[in-house]
Amino acid sequence: MRHSNGIRRAALATTAVTAAAMAVTGILPGTAMAASTTTSTPPPACPASALQVSAWQAAHRPVGTGTGAAVVQFTNVSQKTCVLKGYPTVAGAGNTPLKVTPTGKAAAVTVRPQGKAWVKLTFVQVQGEGDGYCVSGNTPAAYPTMVIGLPHSGKHQVALKDGWWAQCDNKVTATPVSTVKPS
Q1: Which residues are CB-contacts of 175 (< 8 A; sequence separation ≥ 6)?
Q2: Domain map (residue ranges) of the chain
Q3: Ramachandran area for residue 21 (φ above 0: left; ψ -120 to 50: alpha; else beta)
Q4: Helices (DSSP H) in the chain: which residue ranges?
Q5: Domain 48-174 falls in which CATH fold?
Q6: Which of the ends of the chain has fewer CB neighbours closer than 10 A, N or C?
Q7: DSSP string spanning 112-141?
Q8: Is 58 exposed, middle or buried (0-12, 13-18, 19+ CB in 10 A)?
């Protein structure tokens, strides 16, 4: 009998502690606990007006002669956190679209105020100096600016800080937008 009283006392003590915990949390005995339904809303896409865009020649280019690369930086100049996602569209000044080949996996990137995100563009560059040529035989194209767009975040006309956009074949390979700065 003594053993069963100890079990009853332990059960009563556990019940008392559980009831006290439920009272503190506002749950009454005999009622079910509801699952939490609070969800956080992700930040909206960065509008074009929230972004300042700049570009420069990449320090590290793909292996092989004749391949150029540029880094495009998106800075959130607004006072609100926003999201960038996807691959860029690219067009030469005068609205000459380039065929974009995506590389890597795209994911949403949250950019806080004054935060930065990047894409890296690689392309077949023009060979030679002022009388440049394309190894493919195509006519070289040189643009003072490119129009770089991101889904739901507008298009941005940007010049290279260190030269012109000179490329062959109207093609570019692009990484998805990322918070990891390419070199």
Answers
A1: 87, 102, 103, 104, 119, 120, 182
A2: 48-174
A3: alpha
A4: 2-25
A5: Immunoglobulin-like (2.60.40)
A6: N
A7: -TT-EEEEEEEEEBPBSSTT-B-TTSPPPE
A8: middle
Q: Is 27 exposed, middle or buried (0-12, 13-18, 19+ CB in 10 A)?
A: middle
Q: Which two tokens stand for residue 120?
A: 């890296």
* Alpha carbon distances (Å) from 69 to 77, 123, 125, 133: 25, 6, 8, 18
Residues 15-73: pLDDT tens digits? 444 444 444 444 444 434 444 455 688 899 999 999 999 999 998 877 665 778 999 99
CA distance 117 to 115: 7
Q: Which residues pair with 62 in a beta bridge?
A: none
- Return the number of other C-beta atoms located less than 10 Å from residue 67's C-beta: 13
Q: Which amino acid type is present at position 32?
A: A
